[in-house]
Amino acid sequence: MDVVDRVRGCLLGGAIGDALGAPIEFQSLREIRRDHGAEGITGYVTTWRGQSGLITDDTQMTLFTVEGLLRARASEVGDAPGHLVVAAVRQAYLRWLDTQDHRTPPPAGRPHRTGRLREEGWLYSRRAPGNACLSGLHKPFPGPSPLGEPGPVNPGSKGCGTVMRSAPFGLIAWHDPREAFAVSAACAQITHGHPTGYLAAGAFAAIIAHLMADESLETAVRGALDLLATYPAHEETSAALRAAVGLAGAGGGHSPERVESLGGAWVAEEALAIGVYCALAEPSVERALLLSVNHSGDSDSTGSVCGNLLGARHGVAALPSAWLRPLEGRDTIERLAAELAG
Ligand SMILES: [Mg+2]
Fold first, then answer.
1. CB within 8 A of 313, min separation 6: which ones?
2. 214 Cα–ligand 1 center, Å
3. How far is the CA of 306 from the centre of ligand 1 (A)?
4. CATH for 3-44+51-341, options being 1.10.4080.10, 3.90.930.50, 3.20.20.70, 3.40.50.970
5. How many angstroms is it from 324 CA to the middle of ligand 1?
6. Which end of the chain has fewer beta carbons closer than 10 Å to its terminal beta carbon, N or C?
């Protein structure tokens, strides 16, 4: 399997998980079973807008992460990460914020932040964006704090809005998981300053980077745990990841109740843990994705994280074509994947 296949798989898999989970993001497991049967949802169901296969803020922001990284790569001399990457990613997130604060792309001739995604009308849609992502982007960002210390923006926030947008850091720096970790964590601080909030994003990117190098998910998670241990304030994130690995290895099958024992995923380390658990516990890609969304917690974010992991590991051919075909934004996702892998 080549790099392009894994990059496409990662971005499309995340979008599929996001689209599966979106209609049930705010439903309890009881409500999901009441509305969809004992197994929960078994495919796309319609959202509040009466359509299915729609992505949410998780995929929107992931695509803007890709655009920011592409700009940084195009403008940077050498391959040193650092403030230029963080600045380019923040600019990309500000363009995402424009799509949330406005109804349509700006008319020609009016000055505005320019970028290709900024011109795509379908992205101008509020899909329950995270509060810290919105508020954080309205605040000035003086630059990231050393990893392990509280960041300058929303220092108490550790919502899952960091993890769910951060897979691309592992796709572009796949030769070096430590670099993927550091850049992802620094960029997560743009909106979330709690160390767990941004270290979980670092760990997620590192896992993706390991998967890009054809490692198993088990080995990839072990690699991320080794990296986490080198930073202060890693304990909460490390404990959540270890719980996911332990639960997946415990035997006795998996269930939504087991998923929920890892938390509700509204916070970063739980979203990461649930995504990892589902990808580890269920060998079928289709059933792993369904497991990752049929629970009381933040279903679109856990679906997105799980889909990113499975797609990076198994490639685009492993993704169910019935979910790929009607997926919103597929052409844009394919274009960005090709540019990122190129
Ligand atoms: Mg969402």
1. 6, 9, 211, 216, 217, 279
2. 29
3. 14
4. 1.10.4080.10
5. 18
6. C
Cα 220–Cα 224–Cα 225 angle in degrees, nearest 5: 115
Cα 280 to averaged position of ligand 1 atoms, centre (Å)? 23
User: Looking at the whole model, is its pTM more than 0.85?
Assistant: yes
- Please state, in angstroms and rounded to a whole number, the distance separating the CA atoms of residues 207 and 217: 8
Per domain, the residue ranges of the chain are 3-44+51-341
Number of other CB atoms surrounding residue 186 within 10 Å: 25
Query: pLDDT tens, position by position, for the chain (342 residues)?
Result: 899 999 999 999 999 999 999 999 999 999 999 999 999 999 999 987 789 999 999 999 999 999 999 999 888 654 545 788 999 999 999 999 999 999 999 888 888 888 999 999 999 999 999 999 999 999 999 999 999 999 999 999 999 999 999 999 999 976 799 999 999 999 999 999 999 999 999 999 999 999 999 999 999 999 999 999 999 999 999 999 999 999 999 988 899 999 999 999 999 999 999 999 999 999 999 999 999 999 999 999 999 999 999 999 999 999 999 999 999 999 999 999 999 998
Q: 128 C-alpha vs ligand 1 centroid, how far in Å?
A: 6
